[in-house]
Amino acid sequence: MYKLLILGAGTGGTIMANKMRKVLHRKEWQVTIVDQDKAHYYQPGFLFIPFGFAKKSGIVKPKQNFVPPGVDSVYQQVELIDHEYNNVILADGRVLEYDILIIATGVKTNPEETPGLKGELWHKDIFDFYTIEGAEAMAEYFKDWNGGNLVIDVADNPIKCPVAPLEFAFYADYFFTRKGMRNKVNITFVTPMSGAFTKPKASKAFGSLLERKNINLVTDFFLGEVDNTSKKILDFGGREVPFDCLISIPLHFGEQVISKSGLGDEFGFAKADKSTLQSQVRNNIFVIGDAGNYPSSKAGSVAHFQADILERNILDFINNKPLSKSFDGHSNCYIETGYGKAILIDFNYVTEPLMGLYPWPVIGPFSLLRESRINHLGKLAFGWIYWNILLKGRKLPVTSHMSMAGKIND
């Protein structure tokens, strides 16, 4: 019997387990998924926890709930991928063989990589919201905080969900306005980029929105150190930004096992072809989602769109055919802006976010690069879609490639 092994039961790995179990003959293929954690978090929900709009209980479910019948689950840490001999060595000493391997190990934050970031003020006056622990600690802190300099700092790119730090800034403005203390909170958004976002048109739109909400913008700031005594962040050039409360988006790296196994770049992201999603080290290894060194956003939508491409390419590989599908870097993201509104962006490797309607021209119903109430409702509805449709590998009424239908390219 042939063996398909999936490392990682997050968004990408779970979708692929569901898709491949449906298309691979059960008498010919054994499918196994491996993960060291049993809890699956809806990570976009982390943003809402500090502001009291969500709780941990509402964004976490057992991973096993989404593993389809006929897929074996192994909950154990991976020690090594021995791609020379097509097997994976687990922390408990077990060895799992494979004919095809899918790497879906994701990305993790590493606050300890920045001097002073995970110091004495960690989860006291310095927080992250990319972990459940950080989000919950911040929620408690904001209950009694009296205001001051609130600094949101992105240490460097790439990061998971690149729009999330902007969302946090917009929501902070909304949250403290509702509390009647916005005049006591000076919000500053600090980024290593030269603008509010990576793409020029989106960067201009988000920059204008920051200005309208009276949120300071500090650009080209690469975090070098956090001074816990003087409560300030310093970049490598010596610039300083003082804070009373620091919201950090720490450095992100791939899982250590990827580099340890000789499959990744210097940041631990698996080296793979950005179009076919096939490993550049071994042709029977494929990579999905945040785990790859792709020049696309590290966002859940990317894993969803990649999954359609990967399913077809793996079937081609099994049948000794040329890989027929190509991923174009398609990504879309809802960005909460507060006050019951949100912005939607849709882009890929070569086309930046544009104005228009999505997913259908004329009727939308979602507006692109513009605030709207329906976008906010779409963001809220996506939580249900994530658990009930997306993770289970079911089809959504959108294309995996970016479509220009409904977009205004001026």
SSE blueprint:
Blueprint: E1 2-7, H1 11-23, E2 29-35, E3 39-41, E4 60-62, E5 71-75, E6 78-82, E7 87-90, E8 95-97, E9 100-103, E10 107-109, E11 126-127, H2 132-144, E12 148-154, H3 164-178, E13 185-190, H4 200-212, E14 216-218, E15 223-227, E16 232-235, E17 240-242, E18 245-249, E19 252-254, H5 256-260, E20 285-287, H6 300-318, E21 331-338, E22 341-347, E23 355-360, E24 364-368, H7 373-390, E25 407-408
Parallel strand pairs: 1-2, 1-9, 2-5, 9-20, 11-18, 12-13, 12-18, 13-14
Antiparallel strand pairs: 3-4, 6-7, 7-8, 10-19, 15-16, 16-17, 21-22, 23-24, 23-25
Helix pairs in contact: 1-6
Descriptive notes:
It contains 7 helices and 25 strands. The protein has about 400 residues and is α/β, with parallel strands linked by helices. The chain has helices at about 10-25, 130-145, 165-180, 200-210, 255-260, 300-320, 375-390, and strands spanning about 1-5, 30-35, 40, 60, 70-75, 80, 85-90, 95, 100-105, 105-110, 125, 150-155, 185-190, 215-220, 225, 230-235, 240, 245-250, 250-255, 285, 330-340, 340-345, 355-360, 365-370, 405-410. Helix 1 (about 10-25) packs parallel to helix 6. The strands form 8 sheets. Strands 5-2-1-9-20 form a 5-stranded parallel sheet, with helices on one face. About 25% of the residues lie in helices and about 25% in strands.
SS-derived structural category = alpha/beta
What name does the CATH topology of the largest domain carry? FAD/NAD(P)-binding domain
Count, helices: 7
> End-to-end distance, in Å?
54 Å
Which features does this protein show?
FAD/NAD(P)-binding domain, 27% strand, alpha/beta, 3 domains, 410 residues
